[in-house]
Design brief:
The chain folds into two domains: 91 residues, Chitinase A, domain 3; 54 residues, Thrombin, subunit H (Beta Barrel). Strands 1, 2, 3, 4 and 9 form a five-stranded antiparallel β-sheet that branches. Helix content is 8%, strand content 38%.
Length: 170
C-alpha cells in the first residue's frame, strides 16, 4: 500500500544535522522496536516532510533533506528570553534544583498555547529560556524505511491521530 492522505504510516529512520564543523551527526534514531507512527496529512510534522513521503510504499527506503525553512525555521534570537524566577514558583517558592541548564520546561503562553522552553542559564534575576524548536536553524537529513502503511479507521480519522500500537491510547 502507498502512503496517501489518511494513511497510518510507521517509519524507521536516522535523522542527522550538520555539527559546528559541518559534519553530519545523528540526533535521532528511530528503530523497528518503536517506529514513528503518524496519521498522514494530520501529523503536525513539517509539510515538506510529508511531501517527501507521499506515494512511497511499505518496505520502501527513503533519503531526503529538509532545509531549515521547510523544517522548523530559522533560529530566532527573539525566542530567547529572560523570565523572572517568580514565573517558576510553586506554592510561592522557587526551587532552583528543578531547573538546571538544559532542562526543558513545559509552559503556556498568555493565550494558553503549550510551548517548551530550554533553560540556558540561571542567575539571581531569573532564567534565560530558549523557546526555539531544538532543530530550528538546522537542515535535516533523513534516511529510513517505510515499515508499514494502512488506512486509518473511522475513529482515528475522527480524532485526528493514530490509536493502538505506536499511537494514542484512550
Amino acid at each position: 500500500m502507498k502512503i496517501t492522505k489518511n494513511a497510518v504510516v510507521a517509519l524507521t529512520y536516522d535523522l542527522k544535522i550538520n555539527d559546528e564543523e559541518g559534519k553530519k551527526e545523528t540526533v535521532e534514531k528511530v528503530e523497528t522496536d518503536q517506529p514513528m507512527v503518524f496519521l498522514f496529512g494530520c501529523s503536525g510534522l513539517p509539510e515538506k516532510f510529508e511531501m517527501e513521503l507521499d506515494g512511497k510504499e511499505e518496505g520502501e527506503n527513503f533519503q531526503f533533506e529538509l532545509n531549515s525553512e521547510d523544517a522548523y525555521g530559522a533560529y530566532d534570537e527573539e525566542a530567547v528570553v529572560k523570565l523572572p524566577t517568580d514565573v517558576f514558583k510553586v506554592d510561592d517558592k522557587f526551587n532552583p534544583e528543578d531547573f538546571t541548564e538544559g532542562t526543558v520546561v513545559p509552559m503556556t503562553d498568555q493565550d494558553g498555547n503549550m510551548l517548551k522552553g530550554r533553560v540556558l542559564e540561571i542567575d539571581a534575576e531569573g532564567l534565560l529560556m530558549d523557546f526555539n524548536h531544538p532543530l530550528a536553524g538546522h537542515n535535516l537529513f533523513f534516511e529510513g524505511k517505510v515499515e508499514n502503511v494502512r488506512m486509518a479507521n473511522a475513529e482515528e480519522l475522527e480524532h485526528g491521530h493514530v490509536h493502538g500500537a505506536g499511537g494514542h491510547h484512550h
